[in-house]
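Dock zinc ion; give full complex structure.
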Amino acid sequence: MNVPQLIFLRRLAPAFFACLLALASAPVQAEEVTAIRCGQLLNPVDGSLTRNAVIIVRGDRIEQVGPDTPVPAGAQVIDLSAYTVLPGLIDSHTHILLQPEDERGTPPIITKSQAFRTVQGVAAARKDLEAGFTTLRDVDSEGAGFADVAIRDAINKGIVPGPRLLVSTLAITITGGHMNNAGLNPDISVPEPAALADSQDAMVAEVRRQVKYGADWIKLYATGTLRHVDAANLEPLGQVSLEDVKAVVNEAKRWHRDVAAHAYGGDGARNAILGGVRSIEHGMLLDDEMLKLMVERGTYWCPTLSVYIPTEPEDDTELQRRIVASHKEVFKKAMRMGVKIVFGTDVGAFEHGTSAREFVRMVEYGMQPIDAIRSATVRSSELLRMERQIGTIEPGKFADVIAVEGNPLQDIGALSHVSFVMKAGQVYKAPR
Ligand SMILES: [Zn+2]
């Protein structure tokens, strides 16, 4: 430390301690207290339903919860006695900067400005929040640069409403792989929708750049996309070696970040699992050996089942049907083998605000409704390393609370019509 710095610190120190003292003695700002009367309260941990429970919310946190909890004097009361109340939902695979129309025709990176896409993303985030999703892991901005960071920060500052966002900025891919513009004139220069990195050094540098500009998660394309899948043997394009994955995971670890790998199956998926990524995305072509490895290593699986089911006649190809059939089989096997399945949808590829359709699909494929709800609450909170803050309605956690009519344990479709949404103690949607 040089002399001017020392002088500066000495001068600053008394003022600093005076400030601390003032803070310590300042009266604590009165926090708003809210009491939520629940018809029945669903606990996703054990699947129990408690009748007439009351949740006391102080500021942004849950203070108390239970059937005999008294309502403090002066508390604002929210009457949800006609509803089933449960923790705010977590979607662990979203794209707020992607809209359904972006999936058809010319890519949005060519037709839309980043400013316009950001405005669309703000509207999308609100829709997803109002559908009951209070936390999203947004796994890449689909060519909209760092706009996900901007939207996350604007939500956190209270400028716009939206879920709590964990964002991964630009995904890392290889030249010619997934998230490359395809079929364009090589003589013109067009920005690519992801970060192209063709060596371990380049991947490491890209992780650093993304963290520097605000990434909470790192997204790695370990396999290509559907156009790369070999129709003869359903082999996906492997994009990374084991050493590549290790390099990315280790660099992410330096910054306390985790890695999500887009991986359908094959070598790319195996390398992703062995290389230590925290979650495998999609995975419709995973084999038994990979599922076993995931159980052993505690790798999470975010299947995003619904998005692969064709909705347009031109998508309903034989290859697509085989992929969907494999996805269903892998899902059933993964449940039997005890893979940690987390709820994720790829919303953006379809209408924002409709992510609950994935619950219906999971149950249709044989999952118990309580397990589907768990995958979008406690299990997702573990994936995000936020199990102390979100995922259940317990004292000390963020007051993320939603309510639906009916009983989602009997009819999972009830989650498609969320009547009440509170995030961190703020009400964003209430019954009319
Ligand atoms: Zn996705």
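Observed: The radius of gyration is 23 Å.
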